[in-house]
Amino acid sequence: MPERPAALHGVTILDLSTVGPATRCARVLSDYGARVVKVGVPPSKMALQTQPAFWSYSANRGMEQIRIDLKDADGKAAFLALVAEADVVLESYRPGVMKKLGLGFEDLQKANPRVILCATSGFGQTGPAARQAGHDLNYLASGGYLHTSNRRGDGGPPIPGATVADSAAGGMHAAMAIMAALLRRAQTGEGEFLDVAVADGVLWLTSLYVDQHLATGEKPGPGHDVLTGRYACYDTYACADGKWISVGAIEGHFFRNLLERLDLQKWAEHQYKDASQDEMRLDFARVFRTRDRDAWCAELPAADTCTAPVHEIDEIVEDPQFQAREAFVEAQHPTEGAFRQLAPVLAGMDRPEGPIPVPDWSLTNTDALLAEVGFAESKIKDLRSRGIIG
Question: What is the DSSP letter of 134?
Fold first, then answer.
């Protein structure tokens, strides 16, 4: 049986980002088999661009790199030659920057009418906040995500440990939009402009509560229902060793199973009675503190209690479940040597066999990529000598 092609085999992405949502998006698309070419600035201007650690974003596995000065007319022409052969251009500048560079959607379409331009920004291309600077925490705040999270000790919203806005509200949002646009282009033959706002993605993540308010007038917040900390059956508890366990026993039969193992059957009829929650929580906290987390986890999850350990990062990478799912792979860097990294874990991504070779990002594929789109060796040497490429 012939080996199946990767889901995005034959799709070429030009990625102008170095960090954040667009780079997360490029990682997703690459792991689904797209050819991703990272477009950066030439060496003389690299100080102006963030350079992530070598291991960041899966160490750029499977990607190529070209460095071009897009502000130079010849550099812009070189980029447009790449665009003519590409499927998608992915960027994360502030609104208006691409147009100012002469690389707006209309400019790209002249080079390639089928091109898809995906612009990722914090608040989108329109609206009063369009040009505001921001980071993950700001988008989670503006989209309601932080407000509906349970409060920390001083009463303020918590700082999430994971970059939820960059990865899900931004990166995966952009990847889905691009894949949908590719499907639509297969029907229409036309490219399109995608306005991916991270804050819009946060709205989608918070949609249960946004829709609740719009439909009922209620004002969801921390502790307003089972998913935001109102009830003891959906919480985290410290164990004897100082480690934590999560409890998500929402359904009655899971809750009763948990009570039986904790010897707290007296609360069987009080699961959703508000007056009982404080005392019930105290009981849960008291009992969980009698044993170490792993002792509880050796018993409770298998007993249909909807419980799981709050893993620390070093525990995740040795967890038997993730090991069985082959979630981590070996990688080999030309100068940093062997190391482990997260595998392509999303459904439909192909898992590599053997150590994954990752590129030395101090080197580029500039000459080969320009030659591929028809640039003569003499032209490439000229551009390099003038610092336009690197």
Answer: -
